Amino acid sequence: xxxxxxxxxxxxxxxxxxxxxxxxxxxxxxxxxxxxxxxxxxxxxxxxxxxxxxxxxxxxxxxxxxxxxxxxxxxxxxxxxxxxxxxxxxxxxxxxxxxxxxxxxxxxxxxxxxxxxxxxxxxxxxxxxxxxxxxxxxxxxxxxxxxxxxxxxxxxxxxxxxxxxxxxxxxxxxxxxxxxxxxxxxxxxxxxxxxxxxxxxxxxxxxxxxxxxxxxxxxxxxxxxxxxxxxxxxxxxxxxxxxxxxxxxxxxxxxxxxxxxxxxxxxxxxxxxxxxxxxxxxxxxxxxxxxxxxxxxxxxxxxxxxxxxxxxxxxxxxxxxxxxxxxxxxxxxxxxxxxxxxxxxxxxxxxxxxxxxxxxxxxxxxxxxxxxxxxxxxxxxxxxxxxxxxxxxxxxxxxxxxxxxxxxxxxxxxxxxxxxxxxxxxxxxxxxxxxxxxxxxxxxxxxxxxxxxxxxxxxxxxxxxxxxxxxxxxxxxxxxxxxxxxxxxxxxxxxxxxxxxxxxxxxxxxxxxxx
Length: 515
Known about the structure:
Largest sheet: 8 strands, mixed
Strand order of the largest sheet: 4-3-2-1-12-11-10-9
Order of helices and strands: HHHHHHHEEHEEHHEEHEHEHEEEEH
């Protein structure tokens, strides 16, 4: 009997298997067919079984159709097309705008550059490139830019960043100075000092103030100079909505060098790290862009040259500008792909350890800091620090330091089978994802990566500093160990014995006085 039940359950389990197409099982379907036959009791039921089965299946099938319009579910492609529809629409302002051939177009031919990068196996897809190009065109309409180019793409955990590097027209793009956290703190301290001097906020018991003062804050470089020479815009999707990144400060660059973080894709996301980063993800992303640009933006040697007029003014000044060399004849791809790396040079200023391109003396004194000479003599002058010096503009990349016993750059031709039509591809080993192509007089830089520097081993975060001692160690301050009971009894016995001995010595002197 048990075997019959097992066979029955096995057969029933076969009938209960659900179909992947109609989502029905044969057991329930046969049950409904038999119930329909018993309810309707038609003649020749065996001949009508197929029609009954078909009718039952048709009744369960719910088509999303209407008598007029069919209901369609929107796909991901449709959502993307609706979102980026504005990129492919020509506005009235574009129809009225006439292209001046003498001034030129403020954005480059990105599709041509993407084609050359594709020859070297680098870049983004053609469809994505077309959307970025149209988005850059929209950016030039909304912002008064003189030049703009696709800087690169930084991957994030939640979303990616498309980055555009731009320059404003003359007299445009001047932003107000924003107070950094260090400046706000110093302003609060100054206000507190003024209140104490005026008698406001004074308490009965005034707490002592420490003599220690924080090191002077290094000011950020002005717009259109140094690390803030270029302006950067970012967006998560090339739909035309660009967000301008804030200007960078030296303290943000120095802190970005000490941490290692992946971007999330949200500009307002906090940067949780040690040491604490002074800002949000938009500031951290701007610091990484400045570091990558200063290290990986290269051009063929002699493509740029210094202006002779600037050279005659001051030979010792740090050069921060250059012009295109009109006598540059171009270099062949084979020459640019030479492993000697002498045919490439940096055309972005080096960032000093201070976080600036031009060194700032932190102990320099203003002319009106001291009111008279007596106060100036009483105060001790701090030692003059040694100025920081870095490589100058247009320095050959062959002088770059090695990266973990390997060269800082890797050069190759895009094709070894047809070298006469190949182009040179130069890739950075210090910042993986930074690439440059070049041939004749044409070259371009791009970065596509995670925004992290190369590191051979695992990253170890910086340890917190040791806890400072509250008081100096010494015999007068150090707490002594409590004595035991035996030690206290021995001390009392010694004191009592010394006291008795002293009394015995004093008794003969008293007898002599009586005589």
